[in-house]
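G., before I forget:
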Amino acid sequence: MNSHHEIENLLRRMPLVKPSADLDARVMEVFAGGAADSGAAGAETRRADTPEARSADLWGRARTKRAWLVGALGGALAAAAAVALVVGLPPNTTNVTPGTAPAVAPANVATNSTPPAGPAAQVKPVRLEQNWSEVSDEGIVLPDPQTPLRAFRHRTVNRVQFFDPQRNIRMETTVPHEEVIFVKASMQ
Amino acid sequence: MLAAVFNGEGQHRSESHVRSVLEQVYREHRQGLFTLALTITRCPYRAEDAVQEAMVRLWQSSELPRDPLPYVFAAVRNAAIDQMRRTAARRWQESASIYEGMPAAAGPTTGGGPEDPAAAAISAEQHARLRRAVDALPQPEREVVVMRIYGDLKFEQIAEALDEPLPTVASRYRRALDTLGRRIKAVMEAPHE
């Protein structure tokens, strides 16, 4: 029934809310050059002309600022906690269980853990680092008959554990490493 | 016309050129830009702020594409959306219409009206019903209608301003007019006074 053309004509006949003459002045001020800042300031002034706009602005800006502040503080705390976990905290646990070591025979177990300093330390995150190393003699090898070499196999395992008892978070990294070292041997 | 200030190049970097183009766009499309901002903010004060803010941004960008119309409309739309985001925490909703209140008497109106003054008559009932119908449209449809009817933008320009495919914009417009047609059906069929 109604063609789009009819509706378009009807819409064009509707009286629109008109922008105020003040807007023209503000925009022309922008075009006047170098007026970008003053234009923005003008917008602030214009908004403050109405009580509801002023109230809405105050509420909205306060909420926005609060949101930013909370976000920034949260981010800073998270970053600080992460840095403290990785770098700042001394290793302070004694719960080393050699039985959980890898199958490599622990010829040398180095644990740089220390007992807790006091009651407060019990709730702090702890960091435990363990290193196993083993050297085994692989015997003489002769890559060429004139230069006999003795081979030593050196295996190491580095295990680092983080534990936060408050949040019950545990992280563990285990890095095995193995290398063969050749040392010139003298034939007698 | 705007074409008079184009030099045929893709970009305009001259400061005075940008100013003259922006001024001309603003003078010719002031009402459409404001109405688009009002469609989004539903508050005339914030709509004016959005228009001004967009002009500041455009002025600071010191660069305009060859066809600045979609660019300027897009800037006003973005500024209006920013205005809404800034005040998203408000506890009440603005509900200003893009249309003036009830006309005092039937007669020619100032909304970019038709050529024939006799045909410009619009009854209070038509006005009220149309106003409600347009205000009730979904915002994406309302934006397209405003840009097309009150901004005099082509569908290609609207698509560019909204960064949407042309068929999407066209179908959105058709859907909006279909909706308006259904809602004002009774009034349209009534004889004009």
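Chain B touches chain A through 62 residues (CB under 8 Å). The two ends of chain B are 38 Å apart (CA to CA).

More on Monday.
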